[in-house]
Amino acid sequence: LFRQAEQQMEMENKLTRCRKEQAIVPEDIVIRPIGVVQSQYSDPKNVPVSSQESVVKIFPEYAEALFRIEENSHLWILTWFHLARRDALSTIPYRVNPHMQKRGVFGLRSPIRPNPIALTLVQLIRVEGTALHVAGLDAVNNTPVLDVKPYFEGDIVFSPRTPHIRPAKRE
User: Fold this and answer.
1) Using an 8 Å Cβ cutoff, are 62 and 35 in contact?
2) Contact of 143 with 81, CB cutoff 8 Å
3) 101: left (phi over 0), alpha (psi -120 to 50) or beta
4) pLDDT of residue 98
């Protein structure tokens, strides 16, 4: 019992030091999917970069969270690219242009990243129960869906400063 109290005090002291440094960061974060993607593609290499239609199937326990979602024309879909590599911090955007120079993954939309979280702006076509029919989601079948957020007018940025990553060929 004394050892447990001692360990508890040690932990509280560490947390106090961390709070003073403004650096409380949990070692692990648990995220549970709220649904899955239903897509005609099973291999990430075959998913077109351009728009495709797919279904975001929300699990029944989250059905209430979809209340009035059909009032939106566009949504942000956050997915977990479960088939993506997680072992590289830099890469070449091969699907866009294999002749480009290597870049850090935080400066690319590459699925290869430490946490393969994807953020995609989609057009909401229709809602059927807990099924969101969308256009523009670049995910394979059974990709876990982490969250759905509405697109707001304030989400737009006019003339952002970004590097131009020119496609090797236009489709």
Assistant:
1) yes
2) yes
3) beta
4) 81
**What are the tens digits of pLDDT across the range 112-123?**
888 999 999 999
Distances (CA, A) of 68 to 55, 60, 77, 114, 119: 18, 16, 16, 34, 22
How many Å apart are CA 54 and CA 138, to the nearest integer? 9
> What burial class does residue 140 get, using C-beta atoms within 10 Å of its C-beta: 0-12 exposed, 13-18 middle, 19+ buried?
buried
Cα–Cα distance between 61 and 117 in angstroms, integer? 22
Cα–chain-centroid distance for residue 37?
A: 12
Within 10 angstroms of residue 125's Cβ, the number of other Cβ atoms is: 14
Backbone angles phi, psi at 95, to 5 degrees: -70, -30
* CA gap 90, 149 in Å, rounded: 28
Nearest alpha-carbon partner for 74 in 35, 133, 122: 122
Given this model, what pLDDT does residue 163 score? 74
